[in-house]
Each structure stands twice: as C-alpha cells, then as structure tokens.
Design a protein that fits this description.
Elements (H helix, E strand, L loop, with lengths): L6 E7 L5 H14 L4 E6 L12 H6 L3 E3 L15 H8 L4 E6 L2 H10 L1 H4 L4 E7 L9 H15 L5 E4 L9 H18 L2 E8 L15 E4 L15
Parallel strand pairs: 1-4, 1-5, 2-3, 2-4, 5-6, 6-7, 7-8
Helix pairs in contact: 4-6
C-alpha cells in the first residue's frame, strides 16, 4: 500500500511525538514517488530538532524547503515567512506544514486558518504510545483537543509513530500499530499510515498492517550521531 495524501498536509503532535521526523521522511517518500513536494517548517517554538536541520539533503532531492531567512535560522522567534502563504496559494502537488508541538506550537496554524479554509487540507496527529503524555487513548484525545482548539482546525487523520529511538524493536512496531488503529477508530478518523525505522524493514511483516508503512531514516539526531542519508 502506498500513502495517499496530496494538497496541504499539516503534521502535528505532542512534543517528542516524532512529527518532524515524519514530515521529513514523508516529503522524501512522496518526492521519490514522483510528486512535486514543498515542506514548510512552522515550528516556531522549539529551537531544537526542527525540519530545517535536514534542509540540505531535502533540497538536494529537489524538495522545496520553506524556512525563515538565513539570519533568523537559529533564532527561537515567532517568524512566519510570507512564502508559507504563497505555498498555500500556489500549492504544489503536496505541501507539508510541519507545525510546532502541542497546542502552543499549533497556534501558528490559526494565523493561516483563513488561507486554509477553501483548500484541500489534511491535519494529521502523530502519536507515539511510548511517550509519557500519549501512552493512553485518553491522553492522546486530550492532546488532540488542545491542538484543534489552538489551531482552529480539526484533525482528519492519525499517524502511528511508535518508537523508542535506537531501542525500537519489531514488537514495538506491532504494538504501536494496534494502539494507533484503536485510537483512530475511537476518534472516527483514518489511520493514514504508520512508521518504522528503516533498519527494521527485514524484521517486520508488512502484510500484518492494514495501512501504508513509512520507513524512517533518522535525520534529527544528537550532535554525536550522524543522520541517515535520504538518498
């Protein structure tokens, strides 16, 4: 199964959900499947682990990355570049908006609400059941409501991103899938896809899943580690 998303895709989630890693790898997946892709970094809250960290690899692949101007690249400031509005107005086949974590990071979406109202928008909640604040269905629903309220938008789908970073096992992926599927059903939303680390591809039976699977090549790593090549 292939991921079936186009138009504007807003990727949200709690801090530590892995939404930025999902955004980067989703952009690469869609680009390699022949789509014209733009990725806008809207994380104006957290100065660390933002999608801009992978900008050079993404641009080398022909993915248009929309960022603050160079002098503000490392600033922890609420900078919303005009190019984002332009990307919505003159959208590519797929425009991914990587929003900040939790309801605080989602407030920037409210500023774009008018521009997003009359276009095809999917807002996805990335869920990692191995994180402290999304380890239950009730906790995930709470985060969902808070983000929707701040963004003035409704979720349209769920992304299961079960992982324990370097300690992730095949069993974790299966368990995370069951959780994401149950949560999507509880919310009455589509489970758009789940993720798995690229290194586990040979250990997991893809036929087990009723949704597409996005392989993750980790980009947002601490300084003492090297990001996986996206090519």
């Amino acid at each position: 199964m292939k991921i079936d998303l186009d138009g504007i895709v807003v990727v949200t989630g709690n801090y530590g959900s892995g939404k930025t890693e999902v955004s980067v790898n989703l952009a690469v997946d869609r680009k390699t499947n022949g789509m014209d892709v733009r990725l806008a970094d809207l994380d104006l809250v957290n100065p660390y682990f933002r999608s801009r960290e992978a900008r050079h690899q993404l641009r080398d692949l022909g993915i248009d990355v929309i960022l603050p101007h160079e002098q503000y690249m490392t600033a922890d400031l609420p900078i919303l570049v005009p190019e984002v509005a332009g990307a919505i107005r003159e959208q590519a086949a797929l425009v991914i908006l990587d929003a900040g974590g939790d309801n605080v990071g989602a407030t920037v979406l409210a500023a774009l609400a008018d521009r997003l109202r009359d276009v095809n928008v999917n807002m996805l909640q990335v869920v990692n059941p191995f994180r402290p604040f999304t380890d239950s269905i009730a906790a995930c629903k709470k985060i969902k409501t808070e983000i929707e309220t701040a963004a003035k938008m409704k979720m349209t789908g769920i992304v299961g991103n079960a992982n324990l970073i370097d300690d992730t096992s095949a069993e974790d992926i299966y368990e995370g899938y069951d959780f994401a599927l149950e949560y999507a059903r509880e919310c009455g939303l589509k489970l758009e896809f789940i993720t798995m680390p690229e290194i586990l591809k040979t250990k997991i039976d893809i036929r087990h899943f009723s949704c597409p699977v996005l392989s993750i090549k980790r980009q947002l790593v601490p300084p003492w580690k090297t990001a996986v090549s996206l090519t």
